[in-house]
């Protein structure tokens, strides 16, 4: 696709930290002109306020946001409002409900997925990791409909897809379909869900998922809601499998991993070391209340922690806002990241670790040649954007101006 060339003026960029007795007390910024060509940043020059360039109006330019866990194929977004039902308490309850409702949802899923993408883009998100159902009820239709919506949005939005056997590999006859889907180029990850409680075996399920990933050169991203021994054993099993198969390193993830929330500090430190050593990441929607994930401990040991909204409006949960800045804000408040430096670092959870300044205040983004995936927010710096959940004013994806 051809991208036109254009210039932006009055673009606010972070340039460094201001210190007082070695404490960061302020983030320095300046206005610049940015030239975009063929989807990339071609030049970064001193500001020319009187030029004919597109006026960014002094808004802060940040890396566009990445939502790393969602289910674009089965949101209820675009349908009449519906809260969750107290009658559906277990994963198996949800499976029975999905088997009944999926045929109906699929009738309008393409247009509703596009509406959901519009909604996410309004909050500055230009990339998503989306799981899609693979099960006997959906067949390949969930994937086909999702691909059609993504194709219609491809100039302004990108996605990486996880084949997700929501109804179990063996609880329903899903394995044959998953084997076919695993071969498709559109699929980046093989998923799974609660192997022990749903399918009755950690080893049997994890061996299948791991082998499918290896055979088809995919990553792994499994949902794990299980607490206690079965939850921890599943995490350990994936760690072991990733160490045995180094090609999975950096490509293996556990979504939710709620069992980690029940660990004491020593236990959390130990498993964080193991996860980091194996290159296994954790994907979280940042629960709070009676379940707090040890995200600071995981990060301290170098575990890749990805953040996503998960449910925005669906039959599982309706509290996802779709706003990745709000997720960063929640992390900052939950774990006490209140200083200028800490808040600026917390933005990384919304951008998949791409930050304007490094930990020492050296400017590291944007650089000439970077892909022009840009969000403009009404804030004076990253710290304010996180703390205030500042409004998003514009989004650019691969040089294409979304709004």
UniProtKB/TrEMBL annotation:
InterPro entries per UniProt: Metal-dep_hydrolase_composite (IPR011059), Metal_Hydrolase (IPR032466), Metallo-hydrolase_Enzymes (IPR052349)
Record-linked Gene3D superfamilies: Metal-dependent hydrolases (3.20.20.140), Urease, subunit C, domain 1 (2.30.40.10)
Record's protein name: Cytosine/adenosine deaminase
Gene Ontology molecular function, alphabetical: hydrolase activity, acting on carbon-nitrogen (but not peptide) bonds, in cyclic amidines
